[in-house]
Amino acid sequence: MSLLREASSRLWSIRSSEQVALAKRAAQITAELQQGVTRPYKNVIDCSWGDPHREGLNPLTFVRQVVAACLYPSLLTSEVLPVDVQLRAKGLLGECGGGSVGSYTSTAGIPKIVQSVSEFISQRDGAVPSSPENIFITLGSQRSLMMVLKIFVKNEGTIQTGVLSPVPSYPYFNMALSMQGGVMVPYHLCEEQGWKLKVDELSRALHAARGHCNPMALYVINPGNPTGQVQSRKSIEDVIRFAAEEKLFLLADEVYQDSVHDPKCEFVSYKKVLFEMGPPFSSSVELASFNSISKGYFGECGLRGGYVEFVNLDPTVMGHVYTLFSMDNCAAVLGQIILDIMAHPPQPGDPSYPTFSEEVRAIQDTLASNVQRVQTVLGSLPGISCQPIKGGIFAFPQLHIPPCAIQQAKEAGMEPDVFYASRLLEETGLCVGAGSEHGQSEGTHHIRLCIATPTENMEEVLNRLSTFHLSFRSHFS
Amino acid sequence: MSLLREASSRLWSIRSSEQVALAKRAAQITAELQQGVTRPYKNVIDCSWGDPHREGLNPLTFVRQVVAACLYPSLLTSEVLPVDVQLRAKGLLGECGGGSVGSYTSTAGIPKIVQSVSEFISQRDGAVPSSPENIFITLGSQRSLMMVLKIFVKNEGTIQTGVLSPVPSYPYFNMALSMQGGVMVPYHLCEEQGWKLKVDELSRALHAARGHCNPMALYVINPGNPTGQVQSRKSIEDVIRFAAEEKLFLLADEVYQDSVHDPKCEFVSYKKVLFEMGPPFSSSVELASFNSISKGYFGECGLRGGYVEFVNLDPTVMGHVYTLFSMDNCAAVLGQIILDIMAHPPQPGDPSYPTFSEEVRAIQDTLASNVQRVQTVLGSLPGISCQPIKGGIFAFPQLHIPPCAIQQAKEAGMEPDVFYASRLLEETGLCVGAGSEHGQSEGTHHIRLCIATPTENMEEVLNRLSTFHLSFRSHFS
């Protein structure tokens, strides 16, 4: 018997092992295909991740040129790179210890880049002030979320810290909360109303939780993951009012802020709304807002970078935050550099501007066109309904699974949506996420598809899904 | 009153605020010098970090070329890079999702690189078997240590989990342990015997702790930080025997494994010794061994990368480990790529071999010569004694501080070594680490200097330190 077996047993149950099993099976089928095994499809298409480059979108040239030059400064003396790339790289290297991206940085990040991020936020929010002291660059927004949870999730005492978290949600957040010893207080987004966040549901969830745990915070994802809704200013105001009344810390996951596809919607940050509401809200509601280089048109998941901005935190708490973040030493320097580019992209007149703006527009156009195609194709299929995808990089359609398929899933010990996703993978080589991984209202079933992929790949995904879906329904009807 | 103030107050006391104050003061003086303030020195030299590039050592050309090519594959078609760089980069890109280093990887790392690391370990250990399933690539060894602590440090119940940890030590480890809710059980390295790790001291520490906490693990650092000792095979055997008898999990921090300066010493890994001891040890003692790209001749602190190898963990626990590491999504891809180079550096006959081997030898020679100079110069000063620096990248000399200086430090509310370091900084612009940050035996005082720096910088450090030290002694005698 291992020394550790008992001590760590609490952890294993947190993860949905069914999604892990799907991913493993996808890898296995890929290996078999490579070994020459014959199947009715040539390759596996995995759209279960939110990983734009894996799905075939290209990195931005300016980003990669600047980072490559910072890594290997000999490139600065060659003709290979445009002059604005060289200037940017030289400037950034001057901010690195010993002029090398291989040096540690300050805990919160390279001061110049933290300043850039602060200017970016202020500009985004129509001149709402932003202070570099409140910003920490991190190893990605997932890491930021975990750090912030450590601030207020208590492990002592008999009553657990609760955090209101949406259903459906970003599953890592709930895992992180659970590992930290906290408990998720689920509130349901209203699917029939385009996954709207409703304050009466927040209130129901909060009051149901009180007594069982100590709810201290409210986690919101805007634009939604996996649900694709974009909150209106009015909706954000209502949520802020609720957080103020109930003394909840607001955790605003805004990593899809540059991915809004519906021209009638715009992204408005929680911070902007909070400030524009004025006192007492603007001076009292505690907020952490998260952003990342992994999403939007950057898509640099593998380079790990993000930031968190805190609002209205007590200076003593900010001291604790500093201590907490210092435990990671510092964020990866190249992720920091990409944040600098996100904050200050090439401007008209710069040599790299034409290519940069064209690449960004191409990605935005691809996403917008994928959204249209997904909605058209899914809308035409019987037994599937999909709320409008206004933002983000996912579709999260509801499946109306025939009762005898549900029965067969039960007999196989599987969630019905995992049963569906598993057969979809076996029969067509298409790997999607199962709704049960994200949470869904009792009796409903969903799948999650990443839409950040080239048009032709999206078409192939929709073809495989349509063909399978019709055959599945006919088989089980 | 902030919502969070009370909840997070436990955290703030963990960090030595005195070291933070020294670093802040160094930054302030640097800024003042840049603004034209006149002082008896032109610049601040900060040798309080263990950050080779910041100290002026250069990154390895092959490493930077491969990583730059992976980031910006257009370089692969140019004449700028040697052919072995191009081949390596192409091979590594083929292992990345969508051929981009911007994609997430598997939780444990890119499988091909995990395999490389496993081969490296096996080769290092004279063919002791290593299995890729037991290796996780991480965001650096500090992150690995934190993750591993999560496995067995319990936050529930009334008795805290204890971990035996050396004095002096790597302070982040003790901070991480404390944040996790565990408690450090200090064992003292024997300074008079070259910072030897003695089993009777481990035994004393363990028995003193039992009843107060539940000691579950033993943390060792070999080669030592900040103490520079290199453990003999015999010493490691004794420690393993002790861990087996007392059922302690062994945490072997071996990040300085390629930095052994004394030709009479060699680095032997805990895993190698464990396997060569045979059963019952080789099949029962639980071990985690840590390595990093931040140390040795790579020195790539800012790119964040390391790995941990587990030995003899129960398969159920390994499942929990997988879940824990999946919380970080994956390690930074470029850090992973550098681990691949660490595992399989250029070989004789490769175009990059001459430069690579020359750069590595130059760094090793610089460190060896710095060790000689530090020992010669400090050995000649009254009131300083320094144990032999056999490995690692630090000197940790003991200061014999005059009683009236100790008295004055007390009156200023400072530790005597912080008082010394603070005056050293003010008077000469040299910033060193204070021994109290690392822990030291009652009544002794030390400073920590990084020796991973170019020769001329080391000379300047020693000049400033010698001049100050003599004047300090004469002032307070």
UniProtKB/TrEMBL annotation, chains A, B:
It is an enzyme of class 2 (transferase). Signal peptide: none annotated. Its EC number is 2.6.1.2. The keyword Transcription regulation does not apply. The keyword Transferase applies. Pfam families: Aminotran_1_2. One of its GO terms (molecular function) is pyridoxal phosphate binding. Its cofactor is pyridoxal 5'-phosphate. Keywords: Aminotransferase, Pyridoxal phosphate, Transferase. It catalyses: L-alanine + 2-oxoglutarate = pyruvate + L-glutamate. Pathway: Amino-acid degradation; L-alanine degradation via transaminase pathway; pyruvate from L-alanine: step 1/1. Residues 99-465 form the Aminotransferase class I/classII large domain. CDD domains: AAT_like (cd00609). It comes from the Eukaryota. InterPro entries: ALAT1/2-like, Aminotransferase_I/II_large, PyrdxlP-dep_Trfase, PyrdxlP-dep_Trfase_major, PyrdxlP-dep_Trfase_small. Belongs to the class-I pyridoxal-phosphate-dependent aminotransferase family. Alanine aminotransferase subfamily. Homodimer. This is alanine transaminase.
